[in-house]
Amino acid sequence: MKAINQLKTFQRILGEYPADTPLSKFLPGFYRQNKQMGSTDRRVANRLVYNYFRLGKALPDVPEDERLLVAEFLCNTQTNSYLQNFKPEWAVCVGFSDDDKLALVKTAYPDFKLEDVFPWSSQLSDGIDKEAFLKSFFCQPDLFIRVRNGYDHLVKAELTKAQVVFKDEGNGCYSLPNGTRLETIFPKQHWFEVQDYSSQQTGNYFKPQRWDSWWDACAASGGKSLLLHEDEPNIKLVVSDIRESILANLDERFQLAGLTKYQKKALDLTQNIDSVMHDYAFDGIILDAPCSGSGTWGRTPEMIAQFDNHKIEFFQKLQKSIAQNVVKYLKPGKPLIYITCSAFKGENEDVVDYLVTELGLKLEGKAVLKGYERKADTMFVARLSPPAI
């Protein structure tokens, strides 16, 4: 009976879910309207819904309840009451390797193809292991934090006290089980920042110097700026974003981190901004460009169902437009750090080629940050610079 009720709840959620809304925004509202659901009910519903979307676009003609069983089998390593009730022959095999489980699914559903989970694998950036990338969608990414300098021992002590299993990834980065309730372990959170492993690795390309002037051009909530400031506190910092609301979140985050000296601007970087920025010349610009976010869809698998191929071209045009408008404010020989959380070549290497061939920048280094290898996001970073005089 419990498993049947879980299936009914899943079907209700799927029936009410508006396809263009993030699950993280929709599900809390659904639970508020269904207060009879306890914490266990919500946790199971979350698992079922997210796992269902992890199947991507595979088996499109199979009924929803059967697709859910396939997803539950592929996305879990320990048996649960749902599988035991509806597919007991798979429940006993849930601890098998990915390849063995995929073979069992293929036997039951001959039309199943791994490449259908993410049907754009031919457009992935160079060096991405397509099979490993596709299989990573069956596993929820970890939660990563970046501990501020000097607080490592305190964070480790509190995590140990709370009996949270964590891994020290080096350089102040810790991986934790996704869903760890940091707000209950650290009521006054100022010892660390929540930031994905790959996002933290982009900081290796910044290399700021003391008293440099830097611009975080698409700052969002300021994660890259905080990474930059931790590396070199004595920089002059300008942050901008098109969304004033998210800049308010940035203010709050900066305040918690003790970053108080910075300039903030609401800018549309697709437009001419000379009237605001004509007096500025920077020693470094971080362009964390708007993108498809395809490297983060392990966290938001519902985005696979919402994605259309033409969006790659849309974002590429947007990225080129923004880059063209910001590089003019770089001092000669100083770095532009181009970052995306996309796995698509069209948003990564192809844009870098444009920056080199059309804007005359010199490529100093680039990398695909293969987060799929360590339960993290997959990202892209490049360091370029205009010619030195």
TrEMBL record:
Binding-site list for S-adenosyl-L-methionine: 241, 268, 288
One GO process term, biological-process aspect: rRNA base methylation
This protein's UniProt keywords: Methyltransferase, RNA-binding, S-adenosyl-L-methionine, Transferase
Superkingdom in the source lineage: Bacteria
Pfam families attached to this UniProt entry: Methyltr_RsmB-F
Membrane-crossing residue ranges in chain numbering: none
Location of the active site: 341
Keyword Transferase: yes
GO cellular component: cytosol
Domain SAM-dependent MTase RsmB/NOP-type: 126-389
Gene Ontology MF term list: RNA binding; rRNA (cytosine-C5-)-methyltransferase activity
UniProt record similarity statement: Belongs to the class I-like SAM-binding methyltransferase superfamily. RsmB/NOP family.
Protein's name according to its UniProt entry: 16S rRNA (Cytosine967-C5)-methyltransferase
Organism: Mucilaginibacter gossypiicola
